[in-house]
Amino acid sequence: MKNKYTEILKAATKLGLTSFGGPTAHIGYFREEYVQKRKWLDDKLFADIVALCQFLPGPASSQVGISIGLLRGGLLGGIISWLGFTLPSVIILMLFATFVTSTGTFDSGWIKGLKIVAVAVVAHAVLGMQKSLAPDKTRISIGIACAILTLLIPTAIGQIGIIIAAGLFGFFYYKKEVVIAAPKMQLTFGKKTGLISWMLFFTLLIFLPIIKPFTQSIYFSIFDTYYRVGSIVFGGGHVVLPMLQREVDVSSDLFLAGYGAAQAVPGPLFTLAGYLGQVTAGTFGAIVAVVAMFLPSFFLVLGTLPFWSIIRSKRGVQATLKGVNAAVVGILLAALYDPVFTSAVNSSMDFVLVLITFTLLVVYKWAPIKVVLLSVIIGAVVHIV
């Protein structure tokens, strides 16, 4: 068994050090490593896991990695898989946060470059997600409506309400579509573990905000904030942007500098929690933020895998998901304007850099890390000139 865990750690750490390009690219890296190279599972099972993780809130690529770790080595295998994939980018972003906060030069050219490239990356994400999550007129309309409502009701509660409303619309509009049943998965844990995981998930989600007013601990506050965000954000790392921007007491400049830096590192974008936790409360704050951000994913994956064959076959669940996914596109579109665009673009030259970086990403298919580095260099040069 020790060799099995070592093997999981080795594979996951390799992916954590090399998986650039966002959740869609991560899925491609995972398939290459786990399906084609190591043959831990076949394409059908891999596709079923990916479908499940697209349905759940939280970081989809991290959840796929956790799921494969669970299938390969049980609960400990899932934890090891998550650590290997997540820690490299967490450590890099914590170091970056320490550097930025110690220098305090948020108006420097290279910081400006990070903020500007965030506009291009989010715009690219909106286009990509629209093609897969809102491909028809109805879902595009849902997305636009949700974007408008998000800008008019800029609160976390408002965003939750928007997602619920879109899910209800999807349920009634798409509930007659046929869904093909999925095969069962071979797991080392069963429905009892799944039910306990769901109970823990909802217990923390409900009671953390209730207890928060009665404690003065900044670490409890961080845990509550990031656990809540990790529990209700659909659509991957980019969608976490508007929620964290509203929930975390960090300036827009500092926030977007971290978001831009997160584009330049491998691994899940949700590791932005490590950067923000470090800025807010030092190293322990970063650890608390990262654990809280990803803990819901563990509970959700553990809770859902034993029931996935049943859930996957339900028309109502899939219909609801179509509405929710369209809402995700709309929420991200709203975030593209505020805070990303409004905080980063203050002149014609800023917008020129946005157009250049966007073109390199979308038209010339440059890797995000190359675009980020180029934007940082251009930003620094423009600042000096």
Would you spell out the secondary-structure blueprint of this structure?
Blueprint: H1 2-18, H2 23-37, H3 43-55, H4 60-103, H5 109-133, H6 137-152, H7 156-174, H8 191-211, H9 218-232, H10 240-247, H11 252-263, H12 272-304, H13 308-312, H14 315-344, H15 348-362, H16 368-384
Which features would summarize this protein structure in a list?
385 residues, mainly alpha, Chromate_transpt, Chromate efflux transporter
Order of helices and strands: HHHHHHHHHHHHHHHH
- Assign a percent range to the helix content: over 70%
Please report the total strand number as a whole number.
Answer: 0
Write down the overall mean pLDDT: 84
Question: Which class best fits the helix and strand makeup?
Answer: mainly alpha
Spatial extent as radius of gyration: 20 Å
In total, the number of domains comes to 1
What count of helical segments does DSSP give?
16
Uncertain parts: none
Q: What is the CA-CA span between the terminal residues?
A: 59 Å
Please describe the biggest sheet, giving its number of strands, its sense, and whether it closes into a barrel. none
Shape: globular
Strand content: under 5%
